Amino acid sequence: MSSSLSYPFTPIEINGKTVLRPMLRIILTYNSIDFPTWILVDSGADYSIIRREIVEDAFGVNISKLKKSGETCGITGKTSVGEIEIEMKFGTSRKKCIEKIPFNVSLESSKDPPVSLLGRDPFFYRYRVDFRMGYTDDPSLGKFVLYPEEHKRNAKKYKKPLKIKK
Amino acid sequence: MIRYNIQVLEMNSPKKSIDEKQLNSDYQWLVMQGLSKYSGQWIAVHDKEVIARDNSLKAVLKKVTKLQLKTIPLYLRVPEGSVTT
Lengths: 166, 85
Known about the structure:
Chain A is mainly beta.
């Protein structure tokens, strides 16, 4: 049985253009509060970022009390961020996935991203993500596929391409 | 601080359940409807219907609370603005 999860791209109209985006339907859980929503799977983002309203209005967290964890630079510009770990569920009735994701939250209300983003660290370390936009000759039938990294190879057999600081 | 606690209580009291099947079918239904009319807004989808829409999530949560649903709806913010590069 395949352990992959396959999703269609979501067509979103922006300035009269239809853009196909890999939106993953998820359930976020924090302090026993469930919040079903979606998130953009973003291989270009180093980390994940969640919209402030979800943290503040859905989960009841006072963002002003979050400690600054760093700075991030995205499409909304440079912003100070705090961090919050949220449980994220997705999958099907046959294959359910639960991950704890450390999300960045912008500490500046004007610098919120237009949509919450699921970046590479740690999600892409746990899942291989294939963007198959050319799966058929009809782009609207493209899909993105998540493969859990279940069978990790022994790192000792591989040469490191770069010196990676741990 | 009290303000936040009230919001949390509203959302979770009485404890509502998640219906995964319903969420999936609502999501598929919504995508087929087209999302452009909701650009820049938060929407709540339940039983193949957009039951609330507003520019703020807080207002959407408030509207949904009043409906006293048995299951939690799907909350989505439809992105607006520019194509990203």
